[in-house]
TrEMBL record:
This is Zn(2)-C6 fungal-type domain-containing protein. Residues 47-76 form the Zn(2)-C6 fungal-type domain. The keyword Transcription applies. It comes from Penicillium fimorum. It comes from the Eukaryota. Keywords: DNA-binding, Nucleus, Transcription, Transcription regulation.
């Protein structure tokens, strides 16, 4: 297999035979992580905090145990089953395991570093992490993630390692457990090493898993974001996944019809390009035509995936038109005309959709109801694309001098674009309750999901196109009204990526 070729459309990350690709691309992420000890699991005690600290037997009586009553202490309460699973990684146990790991031979170093050593083999944290990923994020990349998890025990791939790191990070965030987060970060770093090796060794047989692995790491960045400087870190991994996909395009390794995994990467890459001011790579914009989904063709019984690719072609082109406007490569009048044509193409797309795309608004509560979450995401991509088109119209109308504009047409189009943006924004806000509620897991599962990833990326894109303060204040109102207190945790995760 030949190495990656130089490609101007993927200048953000385009490895060649003369460099070590992932090593340089991911230096910034490795520097963020810190080496953490491996994690061991011992039999945990449900005893109260006082008895554990005094190392005496606790009889677990309520409202306080006999030992606390005898000593005149306030009983701190007993640990739940969740605490027993996630919070009993003591410092001394971790140090002992770390010391034993350092004595393994060099040949087995990586294997020992990433294996969970169970002193009491009743619980496997990595298996739980993979289940968390499957339950909460598996819909992003489809059924193949399950196949990779099933085969990952003997031959872990970058996809398996990446999704394990995301599951561990989700557990750590929910349970506020720094030890699990340490393990998640080590797993994350290991996934980057495996991605690097896959490119350097030109492992073509695993290129599909490398695409998935790089994309999955973007989810890790989003759920572990804790400050403004890291809120857009997910984009780096998405650009990397797009570069892998570009290699598949050049090698003719794509399927003959679009699949949801490829569509997800196309749209997310487009959002990342919009936020970072980059151009959508040409090979992505050529994919709809490759699958037979040209932007101006429609059928009443068209496959929804082909409809989604037609929408992507228009949306990606608009992102590149905005980039032209930013760099002043084209006259404003031409950009206005292109944006108006694109907005009309988007409206034609919406009116030509099959019946499966129909949604409705509930009579009570600000909420749209869709056939499933995927359709809700696609409709919000449509709304975002139209907001982008009308933003381009407004911005470039403002640049044109008055003599160049018919006064009546200018005022009409200007007012119409502002009204369109306001209406579409509200449409996005009242779509979010369905998305976030549909992916809510049972009480025993993690309140993190693919919807958080999509919602955050969508809102970060809108911050580039609308009033920042108003969006941060308004986006969550319909969801808070519909979901109430259940929404508090999810809102916190999203909000920390918007500031």
């Amino acid at each position: 297999m030949r190495p990656f070729a130089s490609c101007p459309e993927t200048e953000f990350w385009c490895p060649s035979s003369s460099v070590t690709p992932i090593a340089t691309f991911f230096d910034w992420t490795i520097s963020k992580t810190h080496t953490a000890p491996s994690m061991a699991f011992v039999r945990a005690s449900p005893a109260c905090g006082n008895c554990r600290s005094r190392r005496i037997k606790c009889n677990l009586l309520r409202p306080r145990c006999s030992q606390c009553a005898r000593a005149g202490l306030d009983c701190t309460g007993y640990r739940s089953q969740s605490d027993l699973l996630f919070r009993d990684q003591t410092k001394s146990t971790i140090r002992k395991l770390h010391a034993s790991s350092s004595r393994v031979t060099a040949a087995n170093k990586d294997a020992a570093c990433w294996s969970v050593v169970a002193m009491t083999p009743t619980f496997n944290i990595e298996e739980l992490a993979q289940k968390v990923f499957s339950d909460s994020f598996g819909g992003i990349l489809g059924d193949k993630c399950k196949l990779w998890m099933d085969s990952g025990a003997e031959h872990p791939s970058s996809a398996t390692i990446s999704l394990t790191s995301v599951g561990l990070a989700a557990l750590a965030v929910v349970h506020k457990d720094p030890d699990i987060m340490d393990l998640a970060r080590r797993k994350y770093t290991f996934a980057i090493r495996v991605l690097n090796k896959a490119i350097v060794a030109h492992q073509g047989s695993r290129i599909e898993q490398s695409i998935a692995g790089s994309f999955i790491l973007s989810i890790f960045e989003m759920i572990t974001c804790d400050n403004k400087s890291s809120s857009n870190a997910w984009q780096k991994h998405v650009h990397g996944a797009a570069a892998f996909l570009g290699y598949l395009c050049s090698a003719n390794g794509l399927p003959v019809s679009p699949v949801k995994e490829i569509i997800e990467i196309c749209y997310t890459t487009t959002l990342a390009c919009l936020i970072s001011g980059k151009t959508v790579p040409r090979f992505l914009l050529e994919l709809p035509g490759r699958f037979g989904a040209s932007s101006n063709a429609s059928q009443g019984d068209e496959d929804p995936l082909l409809s989604a690719m037609r929408l992507f072609a228009i949306m990606g082109t608009l992102v590149n038109i905005r980039d032209l406007a930013t760099q002043s490569f084209s006259p404003p009048s031409q950009l206005v005309e292109l944006a108006i044509q694109s907005d009309q193409a988007l409206q034609n797309w919406a009116t030509s959709l099959p019946a499966s795309w129909i949604y409705h608004e509930l009579p009570k509560g600000p909420q749209y109801i869709y056939q499933d979450v995927w359709y809700a995401r696609m409709w919000n991509h449509y709304r975002l694309a139209r907001i982008l088109a009308n933003r381009i119209i407004i911005d470039n109308f403002d640049i044109l001098s008055p003599p160049m504009l018919p006064v009546d047409n200018f005022k009409q189009q200007h007012d119409q674009s502002y009204e369109t943006i306001s209406t579409l924004l509200q449409g996005i806000y009242i779509s979010l309750p369905f998305m976030l509620n549909s992916e809510q897991m049972p009480a025993t599962s993690m309140p993190l999901s693919a919807a958080i990833f999509f919602t955050t990326a969508l809102l970060q894109s809108l911050l580039e196109l609308t009033d920042r303060a108003a969006l941060i204040q308004d986006w969550s109102s319909p969801t808070s009204e519909v979901l109430g207190e259940r929404f508090a945790f999810t809102k916190g995760i999203v909000m920390q990526n918007l500031h």
